[in-house]
Amino acid sequence: MYFVRTAGERDLEKVRALLVESFHATYDGLHGRAKVDELTAQLFSPAALKARLVRKDAEFLVADDGRTIGGMGYAAMSHELTKTVMLHLLYIAPALQRQGIGRDLFAELETCFPDAEIMRLEVEPQNAAAIAFYHAHGFTEVGRNENDGAGQSGIPALILEKPLEGH
User: Fold this and answer.
1) Domain 3-163 sits in which CATH superfamily?
2) What is the rounded CA–CA span in Å between residue 42 and residue 5?
3) C-alpha distances out from residue 149 to 31, 71, 82, 100, 127, Å
4) What span, in angstroms and rounded, lies between the C-alpha atoms of 87 and 106?
């Protein structure tokens, strides 16, 4: 049984391992192992994860069963878009997918931003499982970005949005 809680600094190494494993499982076939190694080294360095953990207008959650971190989610208020929270990361260990962990993390993240009216995310257009998950949770496509991520990566992304409850 996994419980959703706020991440702490002691979780970061396990979170990093989960993200690297999940990224390779999801993206190696699309972008190649070398590109995924490059992305995970940049995106999930200990310093990058700690910066997310300490950000004030953000929520960094883990799904924990007391022994392992089975999933993680990270969202933060947008600096560019008014009343919009950006869902940056929602990843579940590949062996634990389709057991409700993502649903539980997402449900908690939805409630963490009372000032937000919209949740927005970017997803790889070929990541059919993620797109199906987000559509099932009320997201609709609102656009496309041909250069997702830092440094104009050349990796495209679909932009999905969902109105948040109570707005």
Assistant:
1) Gcn5-related N-acetyltransferase (GNAT) (3.40.630.30)
2) 25
3) 14, 22, 20, 28, 16
4) 9
User: Could you tell me the pTM of the whole model?
Assistant: 0.91
Which one, of 61, 65, 46, lies nearest residue 91 by Cα?
61
- Residue 61 DSSP code: E
Among residues 164, 146, 167, which one has the least CA distance to residue 155? 146
Round to whole Å and give the CA distance between 51 and 32.
27
| Tally of CB atoms within 10 A around 134 | 24
> How confident is the prediction along the chain (167 residues), in pLDDT tens digits per residue?
999 999 999 999 999 999 999 999 998 988 899 988 988 998 899 999 999 999 999 999 999 999 999 999 999 999 888 999 999 999 999 999 999 999 999 999 999 999 999 999 999 888 888 999 999 999 999 988 776 555 545 667 899 999 997 65
Locate the domains of the chain by residue range. Answer: 3-163
Alpha-carbon distance of 146 to 9, in angstroms, equals: 34
